Records
---
Amino acid sequence: MEWLVASVISVMTGCGVYLTLRARTFPVVLGLTLLAYAVNVFLFSMGRLQIGIPAVIDPAAAAYTDPLPQALVLTAIVIAFGMTAFLIVLALKARSELGNDHVDGLHRSDDELKATKHNSTKAETERSES
């Protein structure tokens, strides 16, 4: 069972990193969400969850489980949800202001035109000099 959980965590982390490094905003949001899920599963697995044992110390109970991983994951879920909502609103605002969804916020078509003009003038000056 541990290898399955470790495999799931590694796949989610790998996909999250891959999507975070994309140039578009929607894959970045999905990548950060996957990374948050991977961290949550990792915290659960490190907390050694036990089923059927109370999380609060009870004198009648024979044993208890540590409530700290559950509290950490609940806090992480709330923070990840807030972060995702903020990123979506920021991406939508950038899309409406800039007209594209590139994470660097540049107008690719204008930049590509400038680069093409720059390269063509540079090539012409090199031809005229030689």
---
Amino acid sequence: MRLSVYILKRAIYSIFTLLGLSIIVFTLARVLPGDPARMAAGSRAPDWVVEQLRHQLNLDKPLYYQYFYWLSDLLRGDLGYSIVSRRSVTNDAIEYLPATLELVIAAAIFNVVGALILGSLAGKYANRLVDNIIRVFSYIAISIPSFVWAIILQLVLGWWLHIFPTQGRITEGITVPRATGFYLIDSLLCGNLSAFLDTIWHLVLPAFALSIGGMAQDARIIRAGMVDNVEKDYILLMRSKGVPERLISFKYLLKPSIIPAVTVMGMDIAALLGNAFLVEIIYNWPGFSRYGIVAMLNKDLNAIVAIVLVIGLVFAVANIIVDVIVSYLDPRIRLLEKGE
């Protein structure tokens, strides 16, 4: 099966998955206790004001009508009206989502690079001192939640040692003209190198706090794969032929060993968007996840559905990327899909 057909097939599956997710989330958001129109208008607002707002938001119509109106607007790029920010949820997403995506991408880089280094070292030196040290580190990293790591790193490296900043995306006083919303890209576009470096400096702690648990877990999976494959016949044959050990380790041993980890790694990276809620609050990060907390506390229905859909979309894209990478690493998967 050609790779383009394989990707198209996965993309069509993802569209149906997102459609099903939208129905479930939309229904759950509407049947939860509480009157969003009353919450938006305020407890002292007259009843006629509440009724008028309910009519404007289509909350007085049957549920399937509400979903039809919402889906029609979504296809036009309109995610609805936020009763908290008092403006379009689409505009809120455009403002807040780049900050979270920038944080998640930085965390994903930490996750992938750290997992490959730690997993390779642990697999190469299995049951030796290096492996034992990485094992202890992994157990500690996995057992502590991201938000606790965020507090620990903020206290030690921010408040006590003053190595990294503890709040925000960029130092107060440095401004970056908005083009994409991604400070790293915008600072490069305007040629402001100091703003670019300052943004990286602010990204380190929250990104590392988000990634450390997934990094440790993926490293253990890579290590297990290497230990399992190191005694395979083809590895022993290469050693007997005198193939350099470095070539065996990084090309013939590591490549098949990371296949199980790639799937888990992709889901871990996609889950970073949802795990960023508390980390963004701790670092005062003006992102989409922190916006989501406010939306949930105020029962902002359109914002809640939009947030879940964005997270679902990230999972779908991550799943497609993972399938492509795995099919590249192991072409037998594409042949199985074709039935060969």
---
Amino acid sequence: MLRTTTFFLLLTTLFVLSPLAAQSAAERGLEIAREAELRDTGFGDFKADLRMVLRNRQGQESTRSLRTRVLEQENDGDKSLVIFDHPRDVKGTAFLTFSHTTGNDDQWLYLPALKRVKRISSSNKSGPFMGSEFAYEDISSQEVEEYTYSFLREEELDGQASFVIERVPVDKKSGYTRQEVWIDQAEYRTLKVVFYDRKGALLKTLVQSDFEQFLEQYWRPGKMSVENHQTGKSTDLLWSNFEFRNGYQDGDFDRASLARAR
């Protein structure tokens, strides 16, 4: 009887554990990315103020003030609009993004000095956004379908238990061959991203901190800092005055909204 009980216990243990044991690194990486996406679904829309601090290799700084608004889309990526308010030479510049789960994102830049809208082609998505260390493709919402994934390891980052996953852009025109992403295990927030360029060399590191929770669910970083390891330059984005559920519509994010954005 004892042998029979032991046999069934062993069989039950193997049955319970086998799905986990069979889960590949790709499946686990995708599972973590989907959980992070799920936890940020349903916010509707939000707006926020930002201060962009550009820093050169010598540590000299210049500052820009801007605003953003974001509209969540059902079954597609988010729409976002960024408007620059300061200094005078960039005041009125506006940047519109339609992120997509598949295919290329659509992006337009309005230049008030020229009074024209410039479309950002997919071949230029790796270019610097308004002289910062963020690329145009970094400004889009990061959709799960835009990458393939692999779980790398678990690791503690600044006292927070984290998953470390690798994601590889599906789009061959991306400026990155791969990214390593640290996601905290408690809230599934992206804490850190290390980017590798088209040659596979270390390019830059993004660190997100000072998180605040809104509507008792949605986390947003108060600070995003990116350091370019190849140029020595860095950019900080400091977020404030978040407001959710503003009632934005698609009409607030069409190309005509670029020129009238104030």
